[in-house]
Amino acid sequence: MHLSRRKRKVSRKKRIRGLKGGNSESLVAEDSKKSIKNCRIQDGDHPLNMNHIAELEPKLVQEWFGTGRYGRMGTIGDGSCFFHSICQSTNFRNYSYTFDKAERQTIVDDLRLQISNALTTDLYTYIQSQMQDPSDVETFDTIKSNLIKRSVWANEFMIRLTSILLNKNIIFMNVSRNTNQPYCNVHLKSSVEDVEDCKEPKEATIIVAWVDKSHFELVVRIDSVNHVTRQFFPGDSHNPKQLQDIDTVVGLLKSYVMRCRLN
After folding, report:
1. Cα 223–225–229 angle (5° rounding)?
2. Among 16, 74, 85, 112, whose CB has the most other CB atoms within 10 angstroms?
3. Closest to 143 measured CA to CA, from 135, 154, 129
4. What angle is formed at CA 62 by the lines to CA 202 and CA 71, rounded to 5 degrees?
């Protein structure tokens, strides 16, 4: 089952309030600046402290992006680490510049509530049809209920739902040393199809690190001591910043397609 273009627009009509848009390059907080200045490569088998940035290993960067400096940013491990990563990337309700743990958890609670409220029966049916095993999907009421519970981990359905509502392509890369197999099949199909057709993806991309298959952290591009890129906006290929984002996303998606055996 595929939604028509008209239905897709209806499904996405309930926008999430509080998202910051337009600028993918974010100033780095003082504690994160120190982290970048003293940035050291750290294995991907252990979660980081909140706001700490650890540089990805060169071998991992080469395999996934080709070139550049990338790191992962620590998130709160309270069961909502996926949603914390999304808030870091989009600066939802000024999350990136809020440094109190309890305040950040309150912001994430609001995001989860808005996503739950935006889930309709039509959207539920569509996402269920796209799942790897549609028969294994929880009931509509169960998903709506679990979405507002801080301690309930994001599952495949919740990730797909978030991606659709935000109109963001969310890609997961495994940063553990013992495996490079990513968290597959939760991407926006249109973005992968664009890359396979040698086109530039249209949707902004958020990259999430899968740490030891039990925790999520945001992946950022380290542009300088003062700036990191938290999400990537393909678009005007004459704009140097967006050209850099295009290179990041195309390299990432090519690696993702190969590792997930999507072609």
Report:
1. 35
2. 85
3. 154
4. 75
Give the mean model confidence (pLDDT) for residues 37-42.
56
| 262 class by beta-carbon count within 10 Å (0-12 exposed, 13-18 middle, 19+ buried) | middle
Pairing type for strands 204-211 and 168-174 reads: parallel
Q: What is the CATH number of the domain that holds 41?
A: 3.90.70.80
Which range is most confident: 13-17, 198-202, 216-220?
216-220
Sign, Cα dihedral of 48, 51, 55, 57 = positive
Q: Report the number of distinct structural domains present in the chain.
A: 1
Asked which of 119-128, 185-194, 224-233 is least confident by mean pLDDT, the reply is 185-194
Residue 212 has pLDDT above 50, yes or no: yes
The pLDDT value given to residue 12: 45
pTM of the predicted structure, to 2 decimals: 0.84
Quickly count: other Cβ atoms within 10 Å of residue 165's Cβ: 20
Give the domain extent around 239. Answer: 5-259
User: At 168, is the secondary structure helix, strand, or coil?
Assistant: strand
Task: Return d(Cα 125, Cα 246) in angstroms, integer.
Answer: 33
Residue 102 φ/ψ region, left for φ over 0, alpha for ψ in the -120 to 50 degree band, beta for the rest = alpha
CA distance 56 to 59: 8
